[in-house]
Amino acid sequence: MNKNFVYLLIFIYTVLQESVFAQKNLANNPIIHADVPDMSMIRVGDIYYMSSTTMHMSPGLPIMSSKDLVNWKLESYCYDRLVENDAMNLTNGQNTYGRGSWASCIRYHNGMFIVSTFAATSGKTHIYTSKNIKGPWKEQSFAPSYHDHTIFFDDDGKTYLIYGAGKLKILELKSDLSGPINVGEEKVLIENASAPANAPIMLPAEGSQLFKYKGKYYLFNICWPRGGMRTVIIHRADKITGPWEGKLALQDLGVAQGGLIDTPDGRWFAYLFRDYGGVGRIPYLVPVKWENDWPVLGENGKVPMTLDLPTNKSLIPNIVNSDEFTRKKGESVLPLVWQWNHNPDNSLWSISERKGFLRLKTGRIDTSFVSARNTLTQRTIGPVSAGLVALDASKMKEGDVAGLGLLQKNYGFVGVKIENGIKSIVMVCIKGGKGTDVEKISISQNKVYFKAECNFKDRADIAYFYFSLDGKSWKKIGEPLKMPYTLPHFMGYRFSLFNYATQEVGGFVDFDYFRIEEKKSKK
């Protein structure tokens, strides 16, 4: 055979192989480009389950499932209302922005799903149990609120809880999970869990998650060296009581806080998240190899942007979704994609009083968008997404404000405002710490359309607001909204449907629909 012909065949074969590899569907990091922080994850058979944090939102403590570790769907919430008090109810001038329930832990033990969390808002540790991931969930709680804890059911039949920041502590729980066996007793597990970072520490080691593999215990934590980035710390021990030895496990892109998960075919990953500006804290998966009885995270210490897992599908409809507000018999009044900003007043909203519409009524006087009760929210999603609503403002009263917002401390919204009997479309954003009218346009009609478009690509963190009088032709209004992630709210920006009164109560608005659009990129 001619040598040149052989070389040609080899060349063609190589090109074909590269083409096939290039066409192979791979997953991309982040696996969810939306605010899903503080994940805790388990596998039961060939299904993965994950809990996450939504803090002040109601219902709260979302539970998701996945068949491939990449594509997740909401299954339930552990609670409808965390607690009844002024802060959670957004009453008497109080709120619980940035608080509510924090980092949870999900386990599966003796045929039961167990999810625990803690809350400064209640001052308690909350534990939820159910035989079905869809609920209903049974709750029990006890004081105090154990910070960033992990629950662990050990092989000796005992149940342990590890908690704290910097100095980590351990206690034993009663078998019925109703509280510690020895109330008030504190045992130090690791005196300084941040030590492996070998640097001055801004955020001491917290976010504990404990795992056991081949007889050894592995405790995951996050710390944040001053002037550095969020860092994964892992401690290892032969006994749960120690002694523990620690290592710096990953320091790349600030991807940190989480734990270990294995696949049915024996592969291992670390599930972690990254602070990513206005969209929030977004989940990543990092490959793990075992070397000398240590989990080694990443590829040469780096977080890969592609993973040998099934490709990412749209976050619609399983994480966010459009809603025409029409309901068939037996359908949920509000699908799981919706959460109220704080506990709602259920007497002041309805999807049945006018068929095919969400009605939001005013029942008290408020002074701003962030103080308004019964604001209905969904996550924004990256890299680019838009939310659209149609609003009937015919029953608004003097001083009422209603529309579509992007909720965070530095919020912005487009809506209808009635002042001195004049109905106007207004764009409002924070200036000098106060909500300020940036642009106002008088209108004579009652039905209006609003759109908020968010660009999170490469942390642009900018949004634009639009209005339409016919639902077809759109006009930009106001100015671009910069969307910084702020700790007082501790949450990514959310699309928000709202209505509040500033002068008299009794008015209402009807939302015809909410539609969300997801885009993969924006130049």
UniProtKB/TrEMBL annotation:
Q: Name one Pfam family in it.
A: GH43_C2
* Cross-referenced PANTHER family: BETA-XYLOSIDASE, BETA-XYLOSIDASE-RELATED
Please indicate which superkingdom the organism of origin belongs to: Bacteria
Matches recorded under InterPro entries? ConA-like_dom_sf (IPR013320), GH43_C2 (IPR041542), Glyco_hydro_43 (IPR006710), Glyco_hydro_beta-prop_sf (IPR023296), Glycosyl_Hydrlase_43 (IPR051795)
Q: What name appears for this protein in its UniProt entry? A: Glycoside hydrolase family 43
Q: Which UniProt keywords apply?
A: Glycosidase, Hydrolase, Plasmid
Question: Which CDD domains does the record match to this protein?
Answer: GH43_FsAxh1-like (cd09001)
This entry's Gene Ontology molecular function terms read:
hydrolase activity
Q: Tell me which family the UniProt entry assigns to this protein.
A: Belongs to the glycosyl hydrolase 43 family.
The Beta-xylosidase C-terminal Concanavalin A-like domain covers 332-517
Q: Membrane-spanning residues where?
A: none
